[in-house]
Each structure stands twice: as structure tokens, then as C-alpha cells.
Amino acid sequence: MLELHQFAPQFGLPNPSPFCMKIEAYLRLAGIEYETKPITDPGKGPNGKAPWIVDDGKTIPDSRFIMEYLNRKHGYPLKGDLSEEQLARHHALRRMLDESTYWAVVYERWIVPENAPTIRDAFFSSIPAPMRKLIFTVAQRGVKRALFGQGTGRLSRDEINHLAKLDIEAMSQILGDRDYFGGEKVAEIDATTMSYIASLIQSPVRSETCDYIKTKDNLVAYHERMMKEVFPDYAS
Ligand SMILES: N[C@@H](CCC(=O)N[C@@H](CS)C(=O)NCC(=O)O)C(=O)O
Q: Do the Cβ atoms of 168 and 210 come closer than 8 Å?
């Protein structure tokens, strides 16, 4: 059976990582059997990041390549009757979330001083308290470096939240009054959108972006619907 290597569930979410959650959502939506293999150190994975899968003796890291692989193997199970143009729009939306919104989530969780202890005590709970602070400081330094290299780390907190709120506004406009980002039927894009929306609505930390998304009635209703449909074992 396909193995999904990912972090353990946290914060009432199937996964604290939107990259991991979207693969699990995809597998459930596509009806592909899988088992989860909990990890604590993504550094031990094939490219040092979570998630990765092992399937038919092949190890595949990176949610983008995992989805491509599963699409090829299972005949694009979530394509429905979407046109090439619709699929291209979904591609652009997915990249916005993975390459833009994601970094605002990371910044708020790991760097903002009032938020970081929540993440420290959740992600490093197995490490005794005095040691935990030290290990977290080292991990946080790595995250800071990544944020600075990517560019988000060079912005102020207000600027970061401003940009993330534009992403939220775009998502809300795109969804409109439809049930799914795929349209009338659920589609591959919904695995990604639902994961980011869940990470923000059920965020373990407070931020302007998290407060803002809760003002978008269509995204809140979508979140509640999708959690019931895809992750009834986590829906509240
Ligand atoms: N492009 C990758 C990104 C995965 C990723 O950034 N995963 C994060 C968790 S949300 C991670 O493992 N980070 C560990 C690190 O960067 O050291 C994907 O789509 O799977």
C-alpha cells in the first residue's frame, strides 16, 4: 500500500503542513488507499522536506511531483471535465498558495515572538523543556535564513500580512458562490485550497491574515464543508 510520510496530526488538523495535508486530501478525494508514516525530522527525507511517498518501491518527494506521479498512475482521477484553460488557472492558484501564502504562514508561526513559543512547544514537545528552547532556536535560525533567501523575511510583519490578505481576497473572489474551486464538482485544486484555508482558519497562532480569512463567509463555509467531506475524522 502507498505510504505517505508526513508529520503527525496537530492543531485539530490532519496535518500542520499544508503540503502534507494536500497530499492526504488528494489521496482521499481520489479514493487511493494509503497508510501514513509519521515523521518528526523532514531532514531524513529524500530531499529534506515533507511530505514524501513510497509506492511500488519508488520513493517520491515533493507534493508537486507526488501529484504528477499519482495523476499519471491513476489516470488523472480528479480532472473531471475541466478544460485546459481551467486547469491552467488552477495551476496558477496552486503556485500562489505554495510560493506566496505559504511563507506568510511560516513567518507568523515561526518568527513572530508572541507566536513562536506555541510552535516550539507543539513541534518539539518530545524534547525536555530546557533542551527544547535550544533546539528550537537552532531550527528557527534555519527558518529565518530560508525566509530571508525567499524574500518574505526582508519585509515587515504588516507587509507580509498585507500580501497574504491579497492572496485570501483572490481566493475568495475565485471561489465566489461555487461549492468547489473545481466548480460544481470537487477537483484536484481543492486538495490544495482546502489545506491552506484550513491552516489559516484553524491556525494555532493569531495573525491579521488568520483574522481576515474568517471574515470571508464563502471561505469559512467551504472550509467547514470540505473538512466534513474529506476529513470527517477531524471536522468539528
Ligand atoms: N516543494 C515542497 C515543499 C515542502 C515543504 O516545504 N515542507 C516543509 C513542511 S511544511 C518542510 O518539510 N520543511 C522542512 C525544512 O525546510 O527544513 C512540496 O511541495 O512538497
A: no
- Closest C-alpha to ligand 1, atom 2: 62
84-230: what CATH class?
Answer: mainly alpha
Task: Encode pLDDT of 15-36 as tens digits.
Answer: 999 999 999 999 999 999 999 9
Are 80 and 86 in contact by the 8 Å Cβ rule? The answer is: no
Distance from the alpha carbon of residue 74 to the mean position of ligand 1, in angstroms:
24
The pTM of the whole model exceeds 0.85: yes
* Separation between Cα atoms, residue 191 and residue 188, nearest integer Å: 6
CB 27 within 8 A of CB 37: no
Q: Which CATH superfamily is domain 2-74 in?
A: Glutaredoxin (3.40.30.10)
Cell numbers 489545506: residue:
195
* pLDDT one-digit tens code per residue, 195-213: 999 999 999 999 999 999 9
CA of 17 to the centre of ligand 1 (A): 8
In the chain, domain spans: 2-74, 84-230
Look up residue 101 and give its three cell numbers.
Answer: 501564502
Q: Is 34 exposed, middle or buried (0-12, 13-18, 19+ CB in 10 A)?
A: middle
Centre a 10 Å sphere on the Cβ of residue 232 and count the other Cβ atoms it contains.
Answer: 9
Q: Measured on CA atoms in the order 48, 54, 60, 64, is the torsion positive or negative?
A: negative
Helix axes 63-74, 18-30, angle to 10 degrees: 10
